[in-house]
Amino acid sequence: MQATSIRLRAPGVSYQTRKVVLAAALAGVELSLSLQEDPEILSSLVPHGKSLVLEVQSASGSPFLIARSNVALRFLAENSPAAGLYGETLYEAGLVDQWLDFSFNSLETPAAVMHLPPDAQVPLAVKETARREVEGAVRVLDEALEKSTFLAGHKVTLADVGVFCALYELVGVENAGSMSIALENFPGVLRWVLTLLHQPCFQHVSPGEADKMKRLQAKLPSVGSTRRKLAEGPLAENGNRRPSKADVAGARATQASAAKGGPAGGGRSSTKPPLLPKDGPDSSLFDRRRTVIKELLVERGEAAVGETVTIKGWVRTIRAGNKGALLFIELNDGSTALSMQAVLEADKTQGFAEATPASCGGVGASFSITGTLVRSPAEGQAVELHATVVEVLGKVYGGEDGGVGGKLYPLSKKAHSMEYLRSNAHLRARTRVTGSVMRVRHAMAYATHKFFNDRGFKYVHTPLITGADCEGAGEMFTVTTLLPEKGAPRLPIRPDGSIDYSQDFFGRRTSLTVSGQLNVETYACGLSDVYTFGPTFRAENSHTTRHLAEFWMIEPEIAFADLEMDMALAEDYLKYCVWYALRHNEEDLVLLEKVPGGEAGLRERLRNVLENPFVRITYTEAVATLERDLAAEKVAFQVKPEWGCDLGSEHERYLTEQVYKRPVIVTNYPKDIKAFYMRLDEDGKTVSAMDILVPKIGEIIGGSQREERLDVLKARCREMGLEEAALWWYLDLRRYGSHKHAGFGLGFERLILFITGLENIRDVIPFPRFPAHAEF
The GST N-terminal domain covers which part of the protein (predicted)? Predict the structure, then answer.
């Protein structure tokens, strides 16, 4: 609906009117106010209209009336989509709706009971129960805001508007007395409130409210003081210990017992154990005693101006100014790609003399800096730290004589090649590129576990030492104790000249695993959906940019599933990882786009993967496309594609980058180029296998429906020269309750290459292992 005018009619100012006024201001909607209306007249216009009525006039006819504040919020957001008040994705829109419902049910409703006037004759116990319900809701809110600046996404949304206005009623009311909520007990909520109060719209929520907002801001303690208070002990405002989650759970259990007629303080105790805290035990013991730089630069920015903080990290750059009276230090703690600039003044910073390059060694030294955050005059950084105290925690001993100095420090120069950094893998985590890559790697590992856990998969730890060759390739590292530490080896030899591994540690030949798939399959046949995520090893004498001797594999296995379900899970998983990186590692991806040799359109490529369905073609169709374009001289390949041969990287990238310009799933490969456990198709020539090919990388995921028919599986083993005796336990799965199942494998390092845009797989694992290289 295209509105010509919008008027808010209400009996006065309330949290409902504040919500609507705020949302209109953020949406850029002109809103006229009429705040002295008769509630009975409003109620006659529309049911439930006593509190407010939003009157929307359109050119098409009579006014459109809205009587619910949250409905009014949604209307304003949907009619101003550019404002992004409903978030930037469907996921964020869902979060917004959840928080609005949370605000109504857990804050607004019990708050209304808390603030009923005395003449309502509501028992104090009822009000106290409502207050406890609200405090529990605020605790939930505090946990949600522990690592987030806003409730949904990276900017203010309707979620922040709705919850803020409900909370304002609880902490900003005049003379609330014992019914108010002390925000100093909830540092996450406090930080969020202070952040919102820096937004101009929140300081003028409605006529006459600006001064009240300023009073509220003035009476709120700083985040720093709150943290100090909590560090001294979790005390409530009255000096008593602040209730932990366990206390709250115990209190709720007691209340529930009393409600059912059980003991409430005396008499025989219940045999039923108290309820455990929903979100784990109270975890207030650990304290970094510093503020991480990401919180200040990425999450809070100018909202942190004026706070006194301590940061710790390693010097990226250091330079002097004003004839040595000033020092400008860029400090990075690894939490973000960004560095905090600290300004030190000789006459105002305690410890200044020790912080000079001559005293500390310069780049690479570790510092602790305490100071006040101010707005930064420089571009690219919202705040900088004006230091009052600096302490050198670790000097750089890189002088020629082993003394303090940076000359011999391996990372003293500003720029280094990736090859050089590989030779200094023990220090490269301090560099910008490696730091960003490792943060992405961490995020992808977390996203992997979260994705599968949220979908009910169980994490199975498969063995690293195995007697089975999953791939049938024979490229395995042998594990043996038969080699003596000194002298010539005296291996036990059989009459036929082979090594007698029966005398080895395990009594048989064993190797480092090339895959956990066979082992994890056994648990899929008892636990249903499972996955494994761990290191694997292949003794391939390969020096390409896509191969390692040691790498990590993610291998899910789905019970009662076919190839179609397998492909759906794989596409969902890959898109989830891409979404997670875009959502949580934006500053790292921005850096990786800008560094020399970085991929300029990295985020655009990732969004293309996220927003488009994967193309699905058969192997036969893929080969036909390659042969057709080769014959038409549209492309030249080093290896000619033909049916029966595996697709090479050049073929895979051509399909994804030139033909379809998006990820492609290729299915039904010839059986002779795939593993023995893949289900044989009805034609007897192909198997129910699939590979997911992505731009820049080529194959990133390989999977299949597993062969569940015992006779067919045994025949495939014979075809490929595998001993049935070595796989007796795997064949048993087909003897006892066999069923369809499917799974796939993804090389974790290839995923990181795909997400970061780097070219060499050796740069996305902390300590790469490849032929002739096993240092560190």
Answer: 1-84
